Automatic annotation (TrEMBL), chain A:
Gene Ontology biological-process entries: L-amino acid transport
One MF term in the entry's GO annotations: branched-chain amino acid transmembrane transporter activity
Name this protein carries in UniProt: ABC transporter ATP-binding protein
Pfam families from the UniProt entry: ABC_tran
Keywords assigned by UniProt, alphabetized: Amino-acid transport, ATP-binding, Nucleotide-binding, Transport
Keyword Mitochondrion: no
Family as reported in the entry's similarity comment: Belongs to the ABC transporter superfamily.
InterPro entries reported for this sequence: AAA+_ATPase, ABC_transporter-like_ATP-bd, ABC_transporter-like_CS, BCAA_Transport_ATP-bd_LivF, P-loop_NTPase
Residue ranges of domain ABC transporter in the record: 3-236
PROSITE patterns in UniProt: ABC_TRANSPORTER_1, ABC_TRANSPORTER_2
From TrEMBL, chain B:
Keyword Transmembrane helix: yes
Compartments where located: Cell membrane
Family: Belongs to the binding-protein-dependent transport system permease family. LivHM subfamily.
Pfam families tied to this protein: BPD_transp_2
Record GO cellular component, one term: plasma membrane
Superkingdom of source: Bacteria
Ranges that cross the membrane: 6-27, 34-54, 60-82, 94-115, 135-158, 194-212, 224-252, 264-282
Organism phylogeny: Bacteria, Pseudomonadati, Pseudomonadota, Alphaproteobacteria, Hyphomicrobiales
Name listed for the protein in its UniProt record: Branched-chain amino acid ABC transporter permease
Amino acid sequence: MLLEIDNLSIHYGGIRAVENVTLSVAAGEVVAILGANGAGKSSLLTAIMGVCPGRVSGAIRFDGASIAGARPDRIVRAGLAMSPEGRQLFSGLTVEENLQMGAFLRRDAAAVKRDREAVLTLFPRLAERIGQIAGTLSGGEQQMVAVGRAMMSAPRLMLLDEPTLGLAPLIIDEIMGLVGEIRARGITVILVEQNAKKALARADHAHVLEKGRIVMSGSAEELAKNEEIVSAYLGTS
Amino acid sequence: MNWLPLLLSGLAVGSIYALIGLSLVIINKATHVVNFAQGEIGMFGTFIALSVLSATGLPVFVVLVLSFPIGFLIGALLEIVFIKPVASGPPLNVLIVTLGLFFMFNSLAGIIWGFDPYRFPALFPTAPIAVGGAAVSPTSLGIIVITLLVMAALYVFFEHTRYGTAMRAASMNPFAARLMGIRVGVVATVSWGLAAGLSVMSGILIAPLTFVDQQMMLAIILKGFAGAILGGFASLPGAAIGCLLLGVMEAFVGAYVDNTIKDSFAFVLIIVVLMVRPQGLFTKALKRKV
Ligand SMILES: Nc1ncnc2c1ncn2[C@@H]1O[C@H](COP(=O)(O)OP(=O)(O)OP(=O)(O)O)[C@@H](O)[C@H]1O
Ligand SMILES: [Mg+2]
């Protein structure tokens, strides 16, 4: 297993946001994590990246080595990257500089340059806007920068937190299509979504979170068959 | 051509303000406070430079070059020892710590070096040079040139190096910066180091013109702060230009209107400017972003 999470709990003060979550992700997979607002999806992802402001307990292992409690720079070096909820771009920097920051820890200039070309091939729209200040891009373009920036660290595991949030249907399909592109590059993906149907269509496995607990797990196919139950948990049925 | 020496001496004084103004902006970007102790750090570093100078007999220019790393170390240490422990609290707590540092350095300098002013050796030749019929002071020219070089170096660092860009990124979005593996705590330490380095340079540049004593930076930090706000506190180039402009205005008001009102004139003008352009003269109005 590439990522193993064991009995992970997250508290914010006295509030428990995630409770005893255990799950694992195999290399090459796309795993979807579904859940309604406040279910604890983002808490889980930020805890994996070492940037969760809450109190995190439990074990997180990446490629066999514990990363629980490690500094985020160590976690990025180990091969994880995240496109966070709400994109969180460096809004006053250009698209180019945002991508460059994704590769902040990398020293191999030639490899970084190759990855930059790859990202710009994947997102031709960003190539056109490479010198534009990121804060002035459209929502869809900003999401592309967030994903591209995460790819610039050459991760083995990418965490995508609600990449389609607030986007128009056409752009949603474009962004969702990326999941396949990322996987085709050999990158394992954890996809957090509220849009169960679209996420399940692209995932191998899925877990449904409710109030911080995993209430349903299985292959994406199985869960897609029980879409009504899933939707009930998401509060979208 | 009697405006030329006046312009240059105004720009020279403005350069001193600008070095302090830039340090205030750099710290504000990283730590979100105005560092009240900035001038006192400059003063303390100047005293250290003077001690090094008299103990080793090194050429004064070498000491000027050393002033940046000496200041950097002082600033970085201050951040680690005094600021980090309170940095997670409200900004007002940090502000109080900088006020504490102000008094600490002020009395420490008095205790170590006493309260009498010291002379600082000249950095530049003192005989005026003739330019187009006007007598120009090499000191003014020297201060301006050195400050411009420092500004150019800062520009290249912040705009065109990986770490400088990361420092800007950390200031815009510390959460995302940590996700990229940028150590935001280290960025704060480096910011304090850079700022203190600039402040000590400004102290050493002005020292030969005034004297070295505990009070030497009091007026300068106020002017540096005012000039930075005049130009736009959110932007390094804006702040620098504001400080230069303030120095020039003071020189001309002092010469043509009245020397006693030049300090208050500067502040009245700044208040008027801020009524019309709250964001300062040289920064674009901040747009709300979603
Ligand atoms: N920094 C924080 N401080 C205190 N409570 C928090 C913090 N972040 C999240 N929470 C709480 O933890 C719970 C889970 O939040 P989280 O953001 O992980 O949910 P989510 O599943 O990502 O929701 P959404 O779909 O709305 O993004 C919520 O009750 C939330 O209020
Ligand atoms: Mg969330």
